[in-house]
Amino acid sequence: MKFDKITMDHGSGGKLTLELIENVFRATPGLDSAILGDIAFTTDSHSIKPLFFKGGDIGKLSVCGTINDLLCVGAKPMYLSSAFIMEEGFELDELEKIAQSMRDEAKNANVKIVCGDTKVVEAGKGFYINTSGIGKIIRPIDGSNICENDQIIVTGNIGEHGFSILNERENLNLASNLQSDCAQLTSLILPIIESDLDVHWMRDPTRGGIAMCLNELCYKRDFGVEIFEELVPISEEVSSISEMLGIEPYYSANEGKMVIVANPVDAPKILDILHSNPLGKNANIIGNITKDHPQKVLLNLNYGTKRLLSMPLVEKMPRIC
Amino acid sequence: MFAIKAKVYGIIQGVGFRPALYNALKKYTGWVRNSSCCVEIYIESNRILNIEKIIIKNKPQNAFIKSIDSVIFKIKKHAYNSFIIKYSKGDAQKNINITPDWGICKKCEQELFDSSNRRFLHPLITCTDCGPRFSIAKDGLFDRNNTTMNAFKMCKMCATEYSDSSNRRFHAQTISCKECGPKYFYVKNKQVELKDIKAVKKAAFDLENSKVGLLKGIGGYHLICNAFDEYAVEKIKYIKKREEKPFAVIAKNIETAKKLAYLSKKEIEILNSQIKPIVLAKYKDERLKFVNLKSPFVGLMLAYAPIHLLLFYFSNLECIVATSANLSEFSLIYKDRDAVNFDGVDFVLLHNRKIIRPIEDSIVHFSLNKQIIFRYARGYAPSPFYLKGVKPNILALGADMKNNIAISLKDTVILSQYTPDLSNYENYEQFNKKVNDFLSFFDIKKVDMAICDRHPNYLSSNYARQTFANVFEVQHHKAHFASVLLENNYTGDCIGIVLDGTGFGDDGNIWGGEFFVKMDKTIKRIGHIKNMKLYFGEKAIKEPYRIAASYIYDITDDIEYVKSLFSDYTDVIELMPKTPYLITSSAGRLFDAVSALLNIKHKNTFEAQSAMLLEYEAKKHKTSKILDYKIDNFVVDFSMTLKTIAKRRDLVSARLFHNTFVEAIYENTMSISKLTGIKVVALSGGVFQNDIVFSLLYKKLTKAGFNVLFNSRFPINDGGVAVGQIYIAKEGLCV
Ligand SMILES: [Fe+3]
Ligand SMILES: [Mg+2]
Ligand SMILES: [Zn+2]
Ligand SMILES: [Zn+2]
User: Which sites are catalytic (chain B) (predicted)?
Assistant: First the structure.
């Protein structure tokens, strides 16, 4: 497939996004934040429909996303910038609410929003927030020492943001108590960064879900990943919607989860720390790093076979359809 | 004095070709040897010989001669004083004309049960005419040292036969006997309990007593049991986690086979041939009811390995279940270690001749007495197919759900054995190995061009995109169409009718009911089945009621009505207006939709189940009536048909739908022919596995004066896509 125009899939975080980074921006797809000596630096733009959703809004999302990206590389989040692109006619009341939830979330995370920018565009062009963040590296976690048999931990139920947003946006009226897991994970992850437990890699599995996240983990590396269906935490709500719509939670977005790759000896201890925090109560070890199938992510199904969790080039095009 | 040099091309290795020529030519002086792509002969004679005639007259039964080149020149004196077989040259290029694995031949069968023969009851008896080939060959040169038979040193007797030109095992690479050959072992709880004939006897006894076993045959392991034993069959269903899909069976002999099923002459012929595929035939024996509950067909084989014959010999069984040892649709087990560790069976009966590449049983079916291949594997792969002209080395990766890859080398095209759905990792690994194996087996050092499907998410395509520098992508149904042109060696103008499940279309939608026109060097889509909205993605394929609901909703725009049609699923149906959909012109999905509308099958437990059940239902009704449909600008619209069927919901609609479908396809073909003046039409795609669709359409088109081409040598379903991909690249067609 050759593309000469940007498609939605170039923004999916999947294979086409990686190709854009490599071929157009001539950069290496890497960590969620840049590690610059003692400093971690990252940026992220946020667009979401609806702007206000169960479990959060675009303001909270923009703060949490950048904070989590800083945590990924072993940094303590310190400062954020915020830039708004707003369409003409946007309700000031709504902007007020968004700003408030940004302040709240920043305060919870002990982070300061220190600079910002606003631009107004024509009506109908939408509402977007970009945040950049700076953190102080406690210890760099850069994926360079991932080893075979490292354990893979996910800090809670997967797919909730994606399913909840779909439910709300399309008015599906399914699972009334399902909400986005949108959260900043400072209180959950910082203790682990500050401990001496041997963590090798972290990433927040946002768009593309854990499937995409794990594919990035082994992208062009000499190892692969295997996870086990029975170990992956999934809520009743998510699995019933998944069953009804035929959409897989593995590919569904999370906004308040972390995938942690850790030394097998320390993994259970990390799990204990996670379990002591309500944000990590459903955390589980879901699989491990393996050299058996480099660059491949395999899902071991409960009935004994292995399925390839591939990185689709075009997200909404089923293989067998 | 003359010398004649000849080169013989075709299927000539592993078929006893050199020995046969030796016997025919031993009164002369000279030699015969294998070399690159052919067998070479040099003869000295006092008069000019018609070498072509001699070769053709003396060719062994499984040899296939493509062509013979010969030159005659004068010589002064003999250079040789006898006729000899020269051994394959060390530097000889690998031969691309290796044969598939052959089923046991009549002569070996006679010897097997002749108590005076030294191979009496030898469970691994073979000869130059039969036995394993491709599954045990290390590379493309079929000499004993290049097969896994090299682990067995010939005993004196065998060695004598091997070098005796009057013996029928003269130069039989797989020669063995009870003394020196591989042996069978009876394994229980990972322990070898018995060997040789005792092992076979015990397994036969076990089968009589409702036991379930794993049996190593030629290209892999089968799960086996007495097919008439309800308890044992249930056990296999449990092991395979497969409730509804019928199992293939091996009948004791052709007489038994005739008792079990209605067999046509052609069907008997292929059952008896050395290909020995599974034949899908209409069953008549009630005792088969445990192996196929709903299907009127039985997948029938005859014993193809001597061990099968022996199991019948040592028991009172008439028919055994022989289904690939694996979980449904996953990779075939072929390694002894995996077999011994397999859970749930009572015993394992294995031999110590190693299998290099797993090969499943092939499946064929006859429509209008014409062979339609459902699965291309043992007995077929890797037969060479010859095209005109020398072209670059091409590798075609095929499709994802049924994967056969193909290579093209000079003038030869070879389709590989089948691998099921690649999203299962074991299958994907098999696919990966198969590609590398094919390249090294046929000694392709450089792939000039790799061809894959255009689908953005096919694993086979992404493999190609990542692995090869020069990748060319071909639309799925154009490849289907081209596969027919290839196997018919047809290069003229042609109308292509591809009635298929689904494939990625050039417009980004999902295609599957396509009308193409090939003129000169271009293939263009001229018409199709009308696009329908399909909700729920892959889930809909597994649960066809979702397809029916999608289509009826698309047609009527009345969600309450759709809910009333499927009252069990209102919670799901309610979601449709709010969820994303795909757009498809699939033919196969229409059959799923009708099957669900008629409450024949709402949810599939295996691929294409609902469509098959619809076909079986249709066969019960004898009417030629049709329902309404519409054609507009070569777009065939079945909206009215579906609407009517949703109202009627009577079983005769199964037949009415088939009639209507064929009529509409026919009418559209007629208009395309009128427009283009083309009277040649090619049929391909999985929907042609449907006997009613194929026969009805074939008859109508033939009656209207069309020359109807279709897939008979290669699979009509996705298994044949790879050869179509090759054809498009080879012919440089503009698609
Ligand atoms: Fe197809
Ligand atoms: Mg980010
Ligand atoms: Zn034989
Ligand atoms: Zn011997």
Answer: 18, 34
